[in-house]
Each structure stands twice: as C-alpha cells, then as structure tokens.
C-alpha cells in the first residue's frame, strides 16, 4: 500500500484535531467541550450530508445502479450482525455478542463523512445517493441483534416492547434527521441547494473538524475501558472492519460501482455505530455491557478506520478496479 495515502490522510485537519483531542486527555488538559455542543454539531453534519445527498439523488435519478447499491447496503446491514454474532459467541455470552454484532452491522456517519472529505481531497468523484445507503444501513442491525438475542438466550423467553424497539431503530434523532434532510434535498433539488449552500457547504469542513476534536476527547476517555475487553475484542475491532470492507468491495466490484462510491460503501460496511445502536441496546438489552460495545466501536474501530482503514480500502479498490 502507498504509505503516502496514510500520511496524506493523517495530515488532514479533521484527523489532526482528532489526535489533538486524544492528546488533551492523555496530558490531562482541562479542555472540555460543553455537552450540548457535540450534539448540535452532529445534527448539523447529518443535516448537511442528508440534504446534499437528496440533491445529488434527484440529479442522478433512481437508476438500476442506485437500486442495486441500496439493496446491497441493506443486505450487508442484515448479514454482518449474523456472522459477527457467531464469531463473538466463541468468547462472549449471547447478550454481549448480540449487542456488539448489532453495533458492527450498523454504521458511523462521521466515518462516512471523513471518507467523503478524503475523496474530495484526492479529487475522486462519488455520487450523493450513497447517503441514502447510509440511511438504510443505520437501523436493520438493531432489529437483527434483537432477533439474535431472542433466538439464542437460554434463560427463558424475553419480552421486548417491540414498539419502543422499532421507534428507536427508525425514528431516533439521527435516522429521522438524515432521512428527512435527504427527502427535502430530493424535493427542492438545485434551487434548494443554491439557497442553503453557504450553510451546508461553506461551514461543513470546519464543523467536521471541530466535531472530530470532541470525538478525540471521547475516544481517549474510552481507551481505559479496553482493559476490560481483552485482546480478543481489540483484535475483533480491527480485523472485522477489514473483513467487512473486503466483502463490501467485492460486492461493489460485482455490481459495477465507480471507485469513489465503492470506497464509501466499503467504509459503511467497515464502520460501527457508537450512537444509535448503543442507545437502542441500552434500552432493549440491558444485560449487555455498554463498555464492551461502545469502547470497541469508538476507541478502536473508529480511529482505525479514519487513520488506516480509509487509505487501506482505497488501496484495495486500486487493485480490484485495474
């Protein structure tokens, strides 16, 4: 792999600010970002990327390529939790295995956004409808995870409030805002884009950078939780994203995605949720240990993907698309 890609990725302002946030924790700086601010920044990022995706979707139209991509996205969101569950069951109980499997079946919007910025930096084009794939992959893993818990628990049948589960899966703030912005972008098209461009485009990179500063703070604070997970989960949190990305790239190559779209699809397959799925798991599977599924996704897989994973997956694309 071309090491310059990793260096180029690391030297991006958002990634450097992620390291700055981690460093602040390690050197015991009193740097703090008030709690409501990261929430506001994350909502802005979802709004901006969803709106842009809707505009791009109306430009490209609902083609066969779009439909195949969205079907592939839903397939991976349903299949990844199943095979990762059985891998995790080698060392963990059903509750922890299902919660972590659901986490890795879902996606990280911030990793997707970072990969988009990486492609823009390299001048590699990608289609905005990949945002629709992101939205479709957020929720199915939660449902699959709960089905796995129901099927494999041995301490009696568990009763779920399925209405609460479905509401958390499909109407949580992240999914609701992302899908809503996508639809509004789709309905308003180029006119809507011109009206909102200074807000959705001009501020985007700076807000992403500041958000990653906060992510660095949070990730560094979670690192100590990894002492509880052991080498098995740390290895899982690095190797499974690579495996998922590899499967995603083979699917992307098979259905003929262009390289930029293929990278974003691989990143979606490789990322893990640290917002929507943990919230749903805390509500529906309280027996699972949050320090396992949050710390692996946030303190291992997230930094691995934004530092090494994204350039690594692009390297794979360059080999497969020759």
Give me a quick take on this structure.
The chain has helices spanning 3-10, 13-26, 36-60, 64-88, 94-105, 109-122, 130-137, 140-152, 162-171, 173-200, 204-222, 230-255, 259-270, 276-284, 290-320. The protein is mainly alpha-helical and 322 residues long. The chain is globular.
Would you write up a description of this structure?
The chain has 322 residues and is mainly α. Helices cover 79% and strands 0% of the residues. The chain has helices spanning 3-10, 13-26, 36-60, 64-88, 94-105, 109-122, 130-137, 140-152, 162-171, 173-200, 204-222, 230-255, 259-270, 276-284, 290-320. Helix 2 packs parallel to helix 11 (204-222) and helix 13 runs antiparallel to helix 15. The longest helix has 31 residues, at 290-320.
């Amino acid at each position: 792999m071309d090491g310059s890609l990793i260096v180029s990725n690391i030297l991006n302002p958002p990634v450097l600010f992620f390291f700055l946030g981690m460093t602040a924790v390690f050197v015991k700086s009193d740097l703090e970002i008030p709690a409501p601010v990261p929430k506001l920044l994350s909502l802005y990022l979802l709004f901006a990327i969803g709106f842009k995706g809707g505009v791009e979707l109306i430009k490209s139209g609902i083609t066969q390529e779009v439909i195949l991509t969205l079907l592939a996205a839903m397939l991976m969101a349903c299949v990844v939790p199943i095979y990762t569950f059985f891998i995790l069951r080698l060392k963990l109980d059903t509750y922890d295995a299902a919660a972590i499997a659901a986490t890795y079946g879902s996606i990280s919007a911030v990793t997707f956004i970072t990969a988009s910025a990486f492609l823009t930096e390299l001048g590699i084009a990608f289609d905005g409808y990949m945002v629709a794939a992101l939205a479709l992959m957020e929720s199915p893993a939660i449902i699959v995870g709960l089905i796995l818990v129901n099927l494999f628990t041995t301490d009696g049948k568990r009763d779920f409030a399925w209405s609460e589960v479905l509401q958390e899966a499909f109407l949580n703030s992240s999914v609701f805002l992302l899908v809503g912005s996508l639809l509004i972008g789709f309905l308003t098209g180029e006119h809507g884009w011109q009206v909102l461009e200074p807000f959705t485009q001009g501020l985007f990179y700076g807000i992403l950078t500041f958000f990653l500063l906060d992510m660095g703070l949070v990730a560094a604070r979670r690192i100590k939780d990894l002492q509880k997970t052991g080498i098995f989960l740390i290895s899982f949190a690095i190797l499974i994203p690579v495996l998922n990305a590899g499967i995603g790239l083979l699917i992307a190559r098979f259905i003929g995605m262009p390289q930029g779209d293929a990278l974003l699809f691989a990143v979606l397959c490789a990322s893990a949720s640290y917002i929507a799925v943990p919230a749903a798991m805390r509500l529906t599977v309280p027996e699972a240990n949050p320090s396992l599924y949050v710390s692996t996704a946030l303190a291992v897989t997230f930094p691995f993907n934004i530092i090494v994973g994204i350039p690594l997956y692009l390297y794979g694309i360059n080999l497969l698309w020759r």
